Structure formats: structure tokens, C-alpha cells
Amino acid sequence: MTEHDILSDAEREALSEVMKAPAPVQPEQCVLIVEDDQFARDLLSELLQMHGIPTIKAASAEQAICTLLTEKNIGLILTDLRMPKRDGLDLIREVRDSQWADLPVIIMSGDAEVRDTIDAIHLNVVDFLLKPIDTDQLLNLIKRELRIE
Questions:
Q1: What is the pTM of this model?
Q2: What is the DSSP string of 3-38?
Q3: Cβ within 8 Å of residue 67, ≥6 positions away
Q4: Dihedral Cα 37, 104, 121, 35, nearest 10 deg
Q5: Which among 53, 67, 97, 137 is least buried, having the fewest CB atoms inside 10 angstroms?
Q6: Element at 85 (helix H, strand E)
Q7: What is the CA radius of gyration of the chain?
Q8: Domains of the chain (ranges plus CATH)?
């Protein structure tokens, strides 16, 4: 140890051991697809899985909340806007007022009004995509948010 060192030999040795230890393995993040149309839900899931992105599917906002409670590796929500009972904006509001408030959300719709877009922006969504979805744009957004190369 020299006079310019800020660490003792014991601290330096402990730090060296920590740096040698393998980083904890993070569970692979998946995308929660919330879409009431089964065909669209399955198609989106298949598209993402073909690009190595794991998915979990939910047919409603209620089912999505239940899934969030049980699945700990969800890294992003991809939700439809128009769904029966509770729409995508209702789901996002509930997510933003919960323990998952920081979870990135992409909303998609084939039937959106200006007010919907403004509401989505206020709910801090990653993007608002119009159907038919530009798959390259969707994949790029998801990969960016999940930090996938």
C-alpha cells in the first residue's frame, strides 16, 4: 500500500474477489401481449418468438394483471387499445399506479382517435402503433426497450 492508495490491502483483496465472481444471472425478459383477438395475439407471439423474444399472452386487461402478479420476468407490455370491458388505456393506468409503474408499454390500435393518442402520451407509453403493425418498427422498439442486441 502506498500513500496515494485509497483502499487498504484487505479492501483491495475483497474488491478483487467481487470482481472475479460471476454476475448474477438475470431471468430472460419476456413481452406480455395483451390482445383480445386470438388470431392477432398468436400471430404477434409467433413473430416475436421467431426473433428470439419470449412472450406471454393475455386475452384481456384482467388477465394481464393476473399474469403480472404471477410472472416476474415481464419486461414490456404490448397491448391493444380496444378491448371489451377494460381497454388498453385502463390497463396502462392500473399498471402506472402499481408496483409495475416503470414497465415499458407499447400500445397498438386499428381504431384510434386523437384523444386516445394524447391519453397514451400522458401515460408515458413507449409508442402508439397503428394497425396493421409495421413489424420491423415493432421489433426494433421491443429490442431497444429490452436491451436485446
A1: 0.81
A2: TT-SS-HHHHHHHHHHHHSPPPPPPPPEEEEE-S-H
A3: 32, 56, 58, 74
A4: 0
A5: 97
A6: none
A7: 20
A8: 28-146 (3.40.50.2300)
